[in-house]
Amino acid sequence: MTVISSVIRDGHDVVKHECQLQCGEGSVLPVHLAASVLPQEDQIVICLVVTDLSLQRGQEELRMAKEVAERANVAKDSFLAALSHELRTPLTPALMSLLALEREEGLPEFVRAELAMIRRNIELETRLIDDLLDLTRIANGKLELHTAAVDLHAILARAVEICRPAIDAKQQRLVLHLHAQQTGSVGDAVRLQQVLWNLLRNAVKFTPTGGTINVTSENLDGGMLQFEVRDTGIGFEPEAESKLFQAFEQSGRGITRQFGGLGLGLTISRSIVEAHGGTIYGRSDGPGSGAVFTVTLPLRNGAVSKPVRPAAADGVLESRRGLEILIVEDHMDTRTTLQRLLERRGYKVTAATSAEEALAAAGAAQFDLVISDLGLPDMTGNELMALLRDRHGLLGIAVSGYGMEEDVNRSRDAGFVHHLTKPIQLDRLTELIATTLEKVAVAR
């Protein structure tokens, strides 16, 4: 061997070398050779240490593969966040204008019906975008719950209210059998509503026109409440039950082509239910036999908080007069729509298309509040907010298509008091403007 001849010929204490040995069965074994001369009086004794490197190489390959997978996951998350931003941005002016139109008096009923149809589809598109981001949160272990005392029947009622237009459009019959007497729990009302809405939406989607959807609630032993959503829809093969809650699965490509959707709703619903300590499963006797989905949730003590009703727009119009708001938004339709609708609600609004324009405006006039997008052409909205806070003491509301937890945390660190994810609803924005201006008044 080269290492042995080298240690003898050159007189080195130790000679090291990595190579591959050909094994008898034809496989190749990576090894590390270390040869040294042991001092003897009358003979040369060579010590050769052979180390098998296959495990070490395997660990190195595993480490490299893990790094590649982590980089790919980060790239995927970044892509989904950017995609979400690009998809949400054009929905904002559409939804705000639509909601403003629905407030108009004297509209013919057929116009109101068309507006309701447009709103349902905008909200559905928003939900699909949210599902993509929720899947990313779940995969990264970042699905957060904001828990409080809740009434599970009240949450179901809100989910039914959202689905009612779609049920009526297909002339379906919704029957509620609410037998549960104990309905108080502690949980994330928004997330639990998302679960029940997903189940109802699927029942509506997969049940033909004129079909029936039954929703039942009952108390179970062990302090649990069970919801059951049963439909007379297309059903599924019993062997498909194991795939129901896998991402992007819809019991076959034909289902996806015929009914649409991403196949994420049940995956997300399971994660939400399990995070609340509950269970969810589905079953069917076969195609054409309908489907039954069952959710069980633990009951917990806690006073149910009363819903807070937003103040009527006309009642607070006078208090808004003279309040100066700076809007920073590079998307023209969003900027002009937001400015017009806020001015109709009594605010004085100045609009800027870039951070440079916003800084110039803030230097020339005094504003009570800034509402800014985060993706500006010349600097980030967070960088702009930090400058406006430090130079002029302004507070702000972030309005962005980026809505992951890290995005919200970064915007708050920069000085934004609130973070709204597009598409925004004007009533919600108006509420946040009021609470932010209260903080401004206290600070002054």
From TrEMBL:
Its EC number is 2.7.13.3. InterPro entries: CheY-like_superfamily, HATPase_C_sf, HATPase_dom, His_kinase_dom, HisK_dim/P_dom, HisK_dim/P_sf, Sig_transdc_His_kin-like_C, Sig_transdc_resp-reg_receiver. The modification 4-aspartylphosphate is found at D373. It catalyses: ATP + protein L-histidine = ADP + protein N-phospho-L-histidine. It is an enzyme of class 2 (transferase). Transmembrane segments: none annotated. Keywords: Kinase, Phosphoprotein, Transferase. Residues 82-301 form the Histidine kinase domain. Pfam families: HATPase_c, HisKA, Response_reg. PANTHER family: HISTIDINE KINASE CONTAINING CHEY-HOMOLOGOUS RECEIVER DOMAIN AND PAS DOMAIN-RELATED (PTHR43047:SF64), TWO-COMPONENT HISTIDINE PROTEIN KINASE (PTHR43047). This is histidine kinase. It comes from Chthoniobacter flavus Ellin428. The lineage of its organism: Bacteria, Pseudomonadati, Verrucomicrobiota, Spartobacteria, Chthoniobacterales.
